[in-house]
Design brief:
Elements (H helix, E strand, L loop, with lengths): L1 H14 L19 H17 L14 H4 L11 H4 L5 H11 L10
Length: 110
């Protein structure tokens, strides 16, 4: 991602005769060693559009993998294997995702 970002920024800056970064923060890569942390991250990412009042329900946001994990869409980019090693069904994943939203304090959401 970093290489793509640098290349895109250079092209954009050349086109519009500007300089500097286009994005607020640099991206970070972090290795995820713990499955519970992975589930926390997935839930956090999926719930952000709801917490930001962009959509009323998780399944209404088309720009994340939630619809794929929940069985509403059959996309080809998502590898669901690692997540579904810890859930017995899509329904269990949906229940987990919906319950978690009420357990996180507002100050931790973007």
């Amino acid at each position: 991602m970093a290489s793509f970002s640098v290349t895109y920024t250079k092209a954009f800056n050349n086109t519009f005769e500007r300089h500097g970064s286009l994005f607020q923060q640099h991206t970070k890569a972090k290795h995820i060693y713990d499955i519970s942390y992975l589930m926390t991250l997935i839930t956090y990412i999926h719930q952000n559009p709801v917490r930001s009042n962009l959509v009323p329900r998780l399944e209404n946001w088309a720009f994340s993998s939630y619809q794929d994990f929940a069985g509403y869409r059959n996309g080809t980019l998502v590898d669901k294997q690692i997540v579904f090693e810890h859930f017995t069904s899509e329904k269990e994943f949906i229940n987990f995702s919906e319950q978690s939203i009420s357990q996180v304090k507002d100050k931790y959401w973007i």
